[in-house]
User: What shape does this take?
Amino acid sequence: MSSRDIVIIGAGGHAKVVISTLFELDFRIVGILDDDPNKWNQKVFNIPIIGPIELLKTGNYELGIVAIGDNRVRNEIVNKYENFCKWVSIIHPFSYVHPTVQIGEGSVVFAGVVIQPDVFIGKHVIINTSSSIDHDCKIEDFVHVAPGVHLAGGVFVGEGTLIGIGSSVIPYKRIGKWSIIGAGSVVINNIPDHVTVVGVPAKLIKQG
Assistant: This one.
């Protein structure tokens, strides 16, 4: 295998966006792994779905990326298979990422994204289409920033949290780990761990 050969984990809709980004970056995708047997021997963008994720243990894949939008599932897969390939982070060429930004392994930055100075992005984070992250934000591991989200400066987002599509967060607010910010919400207060909030302004609707 060459240093640009990569295997994709997951064959759903999110994988299509990951694959299209990899094409822009001239990676060679050697196959897709997915645990749904109904998908085996099918193709995504002419790339074969070759079998279950367990093949990571025997397939001698050098590079991989988990193309699954669900934060908990992505976390489980990474923890189970982290020793069987090197996780790659990718940045779409039609995005703007300031040179001071730090991005952890396995994270993806899609088209139309803007990330401003001194942002920290952890491991296996999704920064989805046309979202923006302003200066001095910290995004912990396994977060999903959905399409069209806008984080103002100095926002902290804890591990595993989903910021739903079209949401906004005002400056220097803290969002806890493994929480859900509902689509279109406006966060004007700090949000604790393990909650779901929705609305304008965002209000608690579920705990745990």
Summary: The longest helix spans residues 13-24. The longest strand covers residues 28-33.
